[in-house]
């Protein structure tokens, strides 16, 4: 099968809720990274076969196929199409998969994959809320077919995070220690300038430059211990959950033919891509099954992987995944994760992969594996190989 190569990857700094990027139109937010990607790679934008962006809650500024709109807003050729996809939290990671599959099939040569989310402007689950205002019930949990299969059971990411903590014996203290490490790692990475090369600074309306992630905090175990749980008697608090934020990210995926034709230098190769489903009521356990499948499929072991990115939707998700897979914390989310850096849903997949690629190069590792839990009990896994 033909190979798919990562040519470059770029992202905006992540803006906290109500922060630097809150007032930015989602199309302009995505356009910023698309322009930067084309400039950094030096590729003729007219040679791009497709633009695939992940985005959830595609209403308002994110409606009307924001991938297509963002490309046009960026001033790029109007003959290049765009498509917006929604695999919940894994939307832009799936965009990479679709891009790579297009290249590996031989039907495409240059594909942009990325994602965008302005969660300040359009809150999570906004599409469901708007639907209810127009008289529609909740899309899945009120479906007669859903009830026939799963019964009258609460479906909630918070409940799932709590169930995982209880089942895998992950204490609140365990999660708070993990969350503190996430913040400390992110702040250390920022101080060392580890993110500088992957970030495309944004010029704000007041003329100032936004170039540093806003979400990492100076916190402590004592501060975390003082927070009330999200559910009475529960273990999950805001401190051990990912932060609401705004960002965009993008990558260029190319075939061997495109590499030769355009004189490109690949930075990594897509070694493996897959997606698996799990129990949708548990919702967040998918990375366990998906990671085990990916390792079995490739013949690689945990010891063969130099870096891991497992999205920190909740600390319990990553801690349970580490227990099941044996992935050591020392190689997992080494520059912090969603608890510290935020989880801009549609953009997270390529945000994580952008950071993972740069860190793989910085440390000289060979393989890196990325996975994340996704709505509906799903999980993507991508393994990349540094070149």
| Helix coverage percent | 25-40%
How many β-strand runs? 12
Instruction: Note poorly predicted spans.
Output: none
Broad shape: globular
Beta-strand percentage?
15-25%
Order of helices and strands, N to C? EEHEHEHEHHHHEEHEHEHEHHHEE
Q: Mean pLDDT, rounded to whole units? A: 96
Tally the helices: what do you get?
13
Biggest pleated sheet: 10 strands, mixed
Rg on CA atoms, Å: 20 Å
Q: Structural class of the secondary structure composition? A: alpha+beta
Distance between the termini: 18 Å
Organism: Nocardioides psychrotolerans
Active site: 89 (acyl-thioester intermediate), 343 (proton acceptor), 373 (proton acceptor)
Pfam family, one: Thiolase_N
Domain Thiolase C-terminal: 265-386
What does this protein structure show overall?
By secondary structure, this protein is an alpha+beta fold. Helices cover 37% and strands 19% of the residues. Strands 1, 2, 3, 4, 5, 8, 9, 10, 11 and 12 form a ten-stranded mixed sheet that branches. A two-stranded antiparallel sheet has the order 6-7. Strand 6 and strand 7 form a beta hairpin. Helix 10 packs parallel to helix 11. The radius of gyration is 20 Å and the shape is globular. The model has no long low-confidence stretch (mean pLDDT 96).
List the helices and strands and how they pair.
Blueprint: E1 5-11, E2 15-16, H1 26-41, E3 50-54, H2 66-73, E4 82-85, H3 91-104, E5 110-118, H4 126-133, H5 144-150, H6 157-167, H7 172-192, E6 202-203, E7 209-210, H8 221-225, E8 245-254, H9 256-262, E9 268-277, H10 286-298, E10 307-310, H11 315-325, H12 338-341, H13 345-363, E11 367-374, E12 378-386
Parallel strand pairs: 3-4, 3-5, 10-11
Antiparallel strand pairs: 1-8, 1-9, 2-8, 5-8, 6-7, 9-12, 11-12
Helix pairs in contact: 1-2, 3-13, 6-11, 10-11
């Amino acid at each position: 099968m033909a190979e798919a190569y990562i040519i470059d990857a770029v992202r905006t700094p992540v803006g906290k809720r109500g922060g630097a990027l809150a007032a930015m139109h989602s199309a302009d937010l995505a356009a910023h990274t698309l322009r930067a990607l084309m400039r950094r790679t030096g590729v003729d934008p007219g040679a791009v076969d497709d633009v695939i962006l992940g985005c959830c809650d595609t209403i308002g500024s994110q409606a009307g196929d924001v991938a297509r709109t963002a490309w046009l807003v960026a001033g790029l050729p109007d003959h290049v199409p765009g498509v917006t996809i929604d695999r919940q939290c894994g939307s832009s990671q799936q965009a990479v998969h679709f891009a790579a599959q297009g290249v590996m099939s031989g039907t495409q040569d240059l594909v942009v994959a990325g994602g965008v989310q302005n969660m300040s402007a359009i809150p999570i689950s906004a599409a469901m809320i708007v639907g209810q205002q127009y008289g529609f019930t909740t899309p899945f949990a009120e479906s007669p077919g859903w009830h026939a299969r799963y019964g009258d059971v609460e479906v909630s990411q918070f409940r799932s995070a709590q169930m995982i903590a209880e089942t895998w014996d992950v204490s609140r203290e365990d999660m708070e220690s993990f969350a503190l490490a996430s913040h400390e790692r992110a702040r250390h990475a920022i101080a060392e300038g580890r993110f500088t090369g992957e970030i495309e600074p944004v010029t704000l309306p007041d003329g100032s430059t936004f170039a540093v992630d806003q979400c990492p905090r100076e916190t402590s175990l004592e501060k975390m211990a003082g927070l009330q749980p999200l559910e009475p008697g529960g273990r999950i608090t805001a401190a051990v959950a990912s932060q609401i934020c705004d960002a965009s990210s993008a990558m260029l995926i190319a075939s061997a033919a495109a590499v030769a034709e355009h004189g490109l230098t690949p930075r990594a190769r897509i070694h493996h891509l897959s997606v698996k489903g799990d129990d949708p009521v548990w919702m967040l356990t998918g990375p366990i099954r998906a990671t085990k499948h990916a390792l079995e499929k490739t013949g690689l072991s945990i010891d063969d992987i130099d870096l891991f990115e497992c999205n920190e939707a909740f600390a319990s998700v990553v801690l349970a995944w580490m227990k099941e897979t044996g992935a050591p914390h020392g190689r997992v989310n080494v520059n912090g994760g969603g608890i510290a850096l935020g989880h801009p849903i549609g953009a997270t997949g390529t945000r994580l992969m952008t950071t993972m690629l740069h860190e793989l190069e910085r440390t000289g590792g060979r393989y890196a594996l990325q996975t994340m839990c996704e709505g509906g009990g799903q999980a993507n896994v991508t393994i990349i190989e540094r070149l």
